[in-house]
């Protein structure tokens, strides 16, 4: 720890926090679970309102969750000691499976948690047809 203090000063160096601050995708952790009826995406978006988040799906069945964490307005008398919360634009993309009903996607947000539900359509099982084997005379 003494070497780290010499290199980075008295402030504690945390490589994980440094990596997160440089990579906004890591600040939008998203779980994807599949139920028998749907694919469900759950994203942690602390401090954001639903008006600051956009959920869309394109023709290629790619679900996109985008938004922006705005920079707080600063008072000239304020002195910041640490800035660890990520700010700026973020985007997460997920390729949906063939079974996704993209025209029936629903999204809700409560307490900074976004839940996107993508219903699944039933996959037709291939029918089996018995082919009669003919005898060749010759």
Automatic annotation (TrEMBL):
Keywords of this entry: Stress response
Keyword Metal-binding annotated: no
Record domain SHSP: where: 21-136
Disulfide bond keyword on record: no
Alphabetical list of InterPro entries matching this protein: A-crystallin/Hsp20_dom, HSP20-like_chaperone, Small_HSP
Any Pfam family hit: HSP20
Family annotation (Gene3D superfamilies): 2.60.40.790
Top-level division of the source organism's lineage: Eukaryota
Family named by the database record: Belongs to the small heat shock protein (HSP20) family.
PANTHER family documented for this protein: HEAT-SHOCK PROTEIN 20 FAMILY MEMBER (PTHR11527)
Name of protein: SHSP domain-containing protein
Source lineage: Eukaryota, Viridiplantae, Streptophyta, Embryophyta, Tracheophyta
